Amino acid sequence: MNQPQLKTINIRGREYSPVECRIAVFHNSNPRGAIKTEIIGNPAEWVFVRAIVTPDVERPERFFTGHSQAKWVGNINGQAALENAETSSIGRALASMGLGGGASLDEMVKCGAAQEPERVQEPTANPKVIPMERPSSDYKASEAAEIIEKWMLANSSYKAEQLLDFLSYKGYKFDEEDVMGDPLRLPENVLKEVASKINKLTPAIKKWLTSKA
Q1: What is this structure's pTM?
Q2: pLDDT for position 178
């Protein structure tokens, strides 16, 4: 069985290890470990989440914590502030025990190292209007990677391999050996193209998987 690897991507000169990779490595290295999260306070406007990582549940006195906050605004957090805050808190807890380190993607967005795309306002008279897609050339590589990363976190029922298989089926060109099973390692042009169509990705991949069943 292949051992989970701690992969990193470089965004504007800073190394970032996706939280889902760190979680996989943690569970593989700590079979008796546990990760727990809890919401602090009322998440009506701001979400505060605490994560507690225990490498060995039989030694509960040794644990590591991480905290994160997110507000229900923006193109991503406006829909998934709770999920993103929880993921970020887990990443910080894992980093505090030495697993991953570096800046979390959420922190990079907050400090401006990576930018969250601006939300296109929908007309209030018709809430069903879908925001206009931006052309792929409008996206920066770091912004595209962030959008895809957060899509993967919000749609964790889809495996990375399924996403890559779908993109290959749709004709996107990339070297499987270079990507190594990680969608965030896709070529820059593919990252930008996928990010520009992120609103259509979930129904498209769902339809494709259904047709294969």
Answers
A1: 0.52
A2: 84
